Every structure is written in C-alpha cells, then in structure tokens.
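Handoff note, outgoing to incoming analyst
You'll be picking up this chain. Sequence as last confirmed:
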Amino acid sequence: MKDLFSNHSKQYAQFRPVYPDSLYQFIYSHVNEFNTAWDCGTGNGQAAQVLAKKFKKVYATDISVAQMNNASKANNILYSVTSEQTSFPDQSIDLITVAQAIHWFDRNKFYQEVRRVAKPRAILAVWGYSLLSINNSIDSLIQSFYTNKIGSYWDKERHLIDERYKTIQFPFEEIKAPEFNFSFVWTREQLQGYLTTWSAVQKYLQTNKTNPVIPLMDEIKPYWLQDTMTITFPLFLRLGRVDPS
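Most recent structure output, in case you need it:
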C-alpha cells in the first residue's frame, strides 16, 4: 500500500470532502448486523467517524501514522497501523469499507483478508470520487491542469479513479449501486486547499519547489463569480457480499 499523504496530513484532514449521508444509508441497507466494521485505508478516519455512530466497534487501519494522528477519536474506534493484512479474528466483521484508497492496495492480499475476517454474507463497500465540477470555464481549466500540468506526476494507479473503479477486479457477489453526487459551497481558498492535497500536486511541489495550484487559481479568478461557489463531485460505489474463505 502506497503512502502519499503523510507529509501533508493536516491539509488532507482540513480540505478533503466529506462523503454524503445517502452513501452510508444505501450501504447500511444491505448490512445484516451492526456490531463490527473495518475501515481499511482510513486516512484521517473520515469514514470511520461516521461508522462509529452506527457500529458498536470500528477498526480503522492505515499505514500512515501522520494521517491517524490527525484523525478524530471516538471510544469505539480502534486505530492501528497496518496494511491490507490484520490480526483481526476470523469471521468477525459485518462491514468492510475502503474510501478513495483501494487503487493503492495490493488487492489480491486485501481480498484474501476480506474473506478471512468477514462474517458470512458480510458487506464490502469500496467507493471513490473523481474530478470535481464547478462551471464550464473553471472545469476546463482544472481538466487541463489535471491532464497537462501535473499529468505526469500522477501515480499509475490514478487511472482506476478516472475509470470510476469499473475496471478493478471485484470477486464478490456484487450488488448494483446507484451513482452519487455530493456538493459543497466553497471559497476559492478552500478549492485551493483541496487541490493542493492532490498527490500529483505534492509530487510536483517536491520536485519543482513551487506550488502549481497558485497560478491555476489566478487563471480561475475571473470565472469565480461570487464569494462562494458550489463544488460537485461524482461519487461511485462497488458493493458486494462476501462469502467466507
């Protein structure tokens, strides 16, 4: 599992978008019991915090200590530093979630672990979100920035996000899921903060010692029509039932 976010974990916690309640409610509608959940690749615990309101116990794992140091704590969230393999008991988990992270995993190892720890007919929910939308003019600038300015700085796994996880192997009894959108009202400063958390931007910054988002924001400024604007993200979900190994 790659760690591309430890060095800017505080920014990540501050600027990454929060997933909509409709996503969780759809997932929960397929879960049999609400005793134990495992959020793998938890990052700053964004999904784990929501799961903790529904489940008695939530395991939240990641390889980044820095990310988890910036995570909100709860008495029933058990954070631990590990990758795709764990020491959790066999057949002990009701729901396993991966939010915007499975493209970094060794998926064969992860799926093997899922089958080991999942209760019979437990649920695996894997989701992500792709490029945001604001208006045609700004969208065009961001798309050009994404593809041309920082395109060569993206890790090869990024294409799985662009393909909305449709091309990843998903060897489970799949449950058809709708597509979701979620929106926020942001200032230009919030948009700049979010774009700066992109792993490709961080690589560009480290290589060139300059933040490429700053000139992009200058280009965006004439098309930013008010103090705040609505930012919309397309969100996609793969959902499946797990048969034990």
